[in-house]
Design goal:
The protein is of the alpha+beta class. Helix content is about 50%, strand content about 25%. Among the domains are: about 1-110, Alpha-Beta Plaits, CATH 3.30.70; about 150-225, Roll (Chitinase A, domain 3), CATH 3.10.50. Strands 1, 2, 3, 4 and 5 form a five-stranded antiparallel β-sheet that branches. Strands 7, 8, 9, 10 and 11 form a five-stranded antiparallel β-sheet that branches. The termini are far apart.
């Protein structure tokens, strides 16, 4: 076998592989042997059909499979020799048959890169937010969670819930049609143009918005506003607490725990950004495409130019960070065992069966390993305390107090 790398950049490869034609004959014979073991024809017992008959009747399909095997194994030899890790399914461009069989292939690989200086990263930890601020936010949150909605007879405003009849069309073709769907004005999963159109809408009003060739036509059926409860003893009792004071104490304790988690999450986010800045390489386009589509699916958003502008770079950074963490995990021998994965999968309520087990374990295992690697890097980081920067409002109050 001979080969030549025609295109050879960081992630894109195109190669020409040439093998003697006798190699294909050997693969054809091997495929005939395989078929013979399984084939049953009238007048012959299983495994006893003469090879000459098999060759005559099934030659085209046997040759196609043999050629596919030859291409796959030849490519595998090259990939192993070059130490490439394919990021996408290789694409066969063309095959020329003669004294030698030559085929050209295109594939994308995970780039070679090194991760260094990943322990002892310096991170700056801000002070916790003041308790009075945390308590106020916690009370707002518990009120939001226990809010009720009431129908109103006025124009819709931000945060209102609008129930509508909605038809979505793309280039004249109806994609979805809902007799009754409810959305919240300001929801980021809605196109910005849709949110703007909903503000000021009245019951029975018809509107139409077009975004990237997708048209949203809707008729407003109902407008509802959110009504927040007051923090008092009655509200506390509805949450199975004695009084408002006990509610505030409980909220304060929870808020402090959440604040510590938030600060740790921010530090880990800073750590991730530093890793991305220090380790530069191109992310395989196929990986980024898969991550981008996953993000759209999770947010229930269509693929569009505006969404690609919003999410593509985020998807690219996620892919790069995952590859960096995978490389560090490999270098530090960080892993999770199957029992840990199965335990988490069960806790998540997911069911494993013979068809999905390996895929689910592989997917969840990679997520767990990356989280374990981030925790490892966080423990190895140098964390410095820094004072909270005074807000403009606080600065103004301080300057007024000085003048007086």
């Amino acid at each position: 076998m001979e080969y030549e790398v025609i295109k050879n950049n960081e992630i894109e490869k195109e190669i020409s592989i040439s093998v003697p034609s006798q190699e294909l004959i050997r693969y054809v014979d091997a495929e005939i042997d395989k078929v013979q073991k399984q084939l049953t024809l009238k007048g012959f017992r299983k495994g006893k059909v003469p090879k000459s008959i098999i060759r005559t009747r099934y030659y085209d399909s046997i040759k196609a499979q043999a050629l596919n095997n030859l291409v796959s194994e030849s490519l595998s030899t090259v990939v192993t020799e070059k130490q490439w890790y394919p990021a996408s399914q290789p694409k066969l461009l063309n095959v020329d048959e003669g004294e030698r069989i030559t085929f050209r292939m295109q594939l994308e690989i995970v780039p070679h890169f090194s991760v260094v200086d990943y322990t002892g990263i310096e991170l700056f930890k801000e002070e916790r937010l003041p308790d009075d601020y945390l308590l106020k936010q916690a009370m707002n949150d518990v009120r939001e969670r226990n809010a009720r909605v009431e129908e109103v007879n006025r124009a819709a405003v931000v945060d209102d819930f609008v129930t509508m009849e909605l038809t979505v069309t793309e280039v004249g073709t109806v994609k979805t049609q809902n007799k009754e769907v409810t959305v919240r004005i300001g929801d980021r999963s809605l196109p910005d143009e849709m949110n703007r159109a909903l503000v000021g809408a009245q019951v029975s009003e018809k509107k139409e918005v077009t975004v990237d060739k997708i048209t949203y036509a809707f008729t407003v059926k109902k407008i509802e506003e959110k009504v927040l409860p007051q923090i008092d003893d009655d509200f506390a009792k509805s949450l199975k607490l004695e009084n408002a004071e006990q509610l505030k104490k409980t909220l304060m304790e929870e808020a402090r725990r959440n604040e510590e988690k938030r600060i740790e999450a921010e530090l880990k986010e800073s750590l991730s950004k530093i890793l991305l800045e220090r380790t530069t390489f191109r992310a395989p386009t196929s990986f980024v495409e898969n991550e981008y589509k996953k993000m759209l699916q999770n947010a229930n958003l269509p693929d569009s130019e505006s969404n690609k502008e919003r999410f593509w770079k985020v998807a690219e950074n996620r892919v790069r960070l995952n590859l960096i963490l995978d490389r560090i995990a490999e270098q530090e021998k960080i892993s999770v065992n199957e029992d840990e994965i199965v335990q988490l999968v069960s806790a998540m309520g997911m069911k494993l069966n013979s068809e999905n087990k390996q895929n689910v374990i592989g997917y969840v295992g990679s997520i767990m390993t990356r989280e374990k690697t981030i925790d490892f890097l966080f423990r190895k980081a140098i964390i410095s305390e820094k004072s909270r920067i005074i807000s403009p409002k606080e600065a103004m109050n301080d300057s007024r107090s000085v003048r007086h």
